[in-house]
Amino acid sequence: MKHPILIGTLFVLAVISSCDKVTEPRVKQTVVVGSQFVTKTNTSIAHFKKVLLEDYTGHTCGNCPAAADVAHQLAVKYGDTLVVLAVHAGFFSKVKLPEYPASYTTTAGNDWDATFIGNAGNPNGMTNRKNYAGNGVVNKETKWPTTVSLALNDPMVVRLDLETKYDTVVRSLSTSIKAKFLSAYSKGTKLSVVLMEDGIIGAQTDYRVSPDLVEDYEFEHMLRKSLNDSWGVVLKDPPIAVNDSVLVSYPNVGLETTLNDKKVSLVVFVYDATTKEVLQVEKLKIR
Q1: Burial 246-262 (b: 16+ CB within 10 A, else e)
Q2: pLDDT of 100 above 70
Q3: What percent of the chain has pLDDT over 70?
Q4: Which ranges of the chain would DSSP assign to H, the alpha helix?
Q5: pLDDT tens digits, residue range 75-85?
Q6: CA 270 to chain centre
Q7: Can you name the CATH fold of 9-285?
Q8: Residue 184, Cβ neighbours under 10 Å: how many?
Q9: How many CB atoms within 10 Å of residue 41?
Q10: Residues with Cβ within 8 Å of residue 75, at least 6 apart in sequence
Q11: Per-residue confidence at 36, pLDDT binned at 50, 70, 90?
């Protein structure tokens, strides 16, 4: 597992304006491996509020495809303002031979499921890991249109600027993240960095069809791995002032050959270290 390191001084001087206060306890030079880079940034969409919708699901859950459809419809409706993350975890995500040979679980997803979902089971979801209008932190897909709509009214506390460099030959991903606080914040914050993948074909139970085993179901928005463990890393301890900025990098992370790199996106979110409420999220396709 790669540990975050602060980006070098030259990069800080080039990117950060003079009004920013940059957290910089230790400076190291980042050496990025590779030569056939695809470079991507989220600069054009980093200036507005985003919402994270987590869909907890499993391939033997017959009611889960209907919930996935709700999540996908919301993603289409809200475009860049909504990031959907499908988390395979819990009883219905277990391998079941011979019909369901694949495992789509992750360590991070299992840990999140144990903390938030537990016996509630699948399908269930969370919007910014927050209780909106008494709907509960964890709720069914029938509540998601309401909770997402309400979440979009939350203030934008922190801006996340992302840059990825992905080498298509050696399948190495290097990520740079700048978090800039747009308002003061009284509590500590943490940073989670994960990969998601679209267009995965596999077996899924779907009670809406007969027979209910769909062998070529297409999974979207699937959580695939975390780059900084299940609960991320400390981003900034309080007190946090306006314009406080933090630079973090994850260089030379290898992508497994089981991942289709043309359909992989980086998902980065900042959350309250105490309440776990997600304050901002960004998604960036790596190629």
Answers
A1: bbbbbbbbebeeebebe
A2: yes
A3: 88
A4: 9-15, 64-78, 107-112, 144-151
A5: 999 999 999 99
A6: 10
A7: Immunoglobulin-like (2.60.40)
A8: 13
A9: 13
A10: 53, 82, 84, 221
A11: confident
